[in-house]
Design a protein that fits this description.
The chain has 174 residues and is α/β, with parallel strands linked by helices. The protein is built from three helices and nine strands, in the order E-H-E-H-E-E-E-H-E-E-E-E. Helices cover 22% and strands 30% of the residues. Bound molecules: guanosine-5'-monophosphate.
Length: 174
């Protein structure tokens, strides 16, 4: 495991900033619901949640990408859906990373059909270089270069999610 891209200290400082900005946004937008996308967003979601200072409830979705027939369609399989309806709620979708944008576009469309009062998006990482679809993101932790990363929720074959930092994946370790 080599070059650390984002240290634990940098991540935690940025999460506190995001928490303050999001709290300010949702002070007058109640009821406020944070939706985490499992599994990658779990550590970010938990830290972000603890930095929120306004009333908030939480729910989770778990998704997996289809590998066939067309990964580029962005269609995802919902493995676990939300437990409760979101109609009339101000929803903030929390994801680990936006890359092509296809996954978030799919989830966003799916949630909009359920008539939330508003639907915002917060991502820890944004890799704009590989974007295929325009997506407006309300809160971004860090913009990152065009390199595969692991740590702080992001995995390689389900490992490394526990690292408290984000690091470039070293392909030589495969
Ligand atoms: P998108 O649909 O925006 O291309 O991809 C989003 C999903 O791809 C993320 O939720 C994440 O699961 C995965 N992903 C994209 N880039 C990376 C990366 O650099 N590292 C890891 N571990 N997962 C990534």
């Amino acid at each position: 495991m080599s070059s650390i891209l984002l240290s634990e200290e940098r991540i935690q400082a940025r999460v506190r900033e995001l928490g303050a900005a999001i709290s300010a946004t949702y002070r007058d937008k109640q009821p406020f619901l944070m939706v985490g996308v499992l599994r990658g967003a779990a550590p970010f979601f938990a830290d972000l949640l603890r930095s929120i200072t306004v009333p908030v409830s939480i729910d989770f979705m778990s998704i997996s990408s289809y590998t066939t027939p067309a990964p580029s369609s962005g269609a995802v399989r919902i493995i676990k859906d939300l437990d409760h309806p979101i109609a009339g709620k101000h929803v903030l979708l929390v994801e680990d990373i936006i890359d092509t944008g296809l996954t978030l576009r799919y989830i966003r469309k799916n949630l909009l059909l359920r008539h939330p009062s508003s639907l915002g998006v917060c991502v820890l990482l944004d890799r704009p270089k590989r974007r295929l679809v325009e997506m407006s993101i309300d809160h971004v932790g860090f913009e990152i270069p065009d390199e595969y990363v692991v740590g702080y929720g992001l995995d390689h074959r389900q490992l490394y999610r526990n690292l408290p930092f984000v690091t470039l994946w070293d392909h030589s370790e495969e």
